[in-house]
Amino acid sequence: MNSHTRQIILQEAEVLIRTRGYAAFSYADLAGRIGVTKASIHYYFPAKEDLVLQLTEDYVTRFRAALDRILARHATAGARLRAYAQLFLAGFEQGMLPYCGALSAERSALPIAMHGPIQAFFQLHLDWLGGVLEDGRAAGELATRAAPGHLALLLLSTLEGGTFVGWAMERKAMVLAAFESVLAGIETQQPHRQAASGSGPAPA
Question: CA–CA separation, 175 vs 88, rounded Å?
């Protein structure tokens, strides 16, 4: 047994959750995709709950890093929000939904232990968006009377819900178009100042 096998198990489990859903795959499915025995998967993750908890912890760590990169590489609120929106579309062509969106859609089927981490993940979205919105309003880049928390929920809902609709209709552009419509209502007419971007974003 080695760490590479463990990582492959986590990677393939993420794909299955984001394409089939948590309840629709088994360790037998996962073993078949990877080419290992079910016993090998149980060695690292005795129960499916252990697997999804570890996967979620790793995913949130990657997502936090992606948000930090956005803040470092983009100077304005508009540029940061657009970079954030792109996180939702990573994996779209592979038919993959946003990770925690896929999990939250199956909340009733998830172990109770997963409810808290999923809520915390969405709160991370809302807190980060609220901070970007507050900074943008203070800098004169955004003009809105709405509370940052309410607007953060609107932006998150537009992307999360829009991704499900766009995924079903196989039209990625409609997700970004809806998001741009929201930004058009709050963004001032300042030129977009943006730091040079590096590698592509992590999935949302």
Answer: 9
Q: State the CB neighbour count (10 A cutoff) for residue 106.
A: 14
CA 110 vs. chain centroid, Å, equals 18
Neighbours of 184 (CB within 10 A): 8
Is the pLDDT assigned to residue 190 strictly greater than 70? no
Beta-bridge mates of residue 110: none
**Can you give the pTM of this predicted structure?**
0.87
pLDDT, tens digit, 9 for 90 and up, residues 74-127: 999 999 999 999 998 888 878 889 998 899 999 999 999 999 999 999 999 999
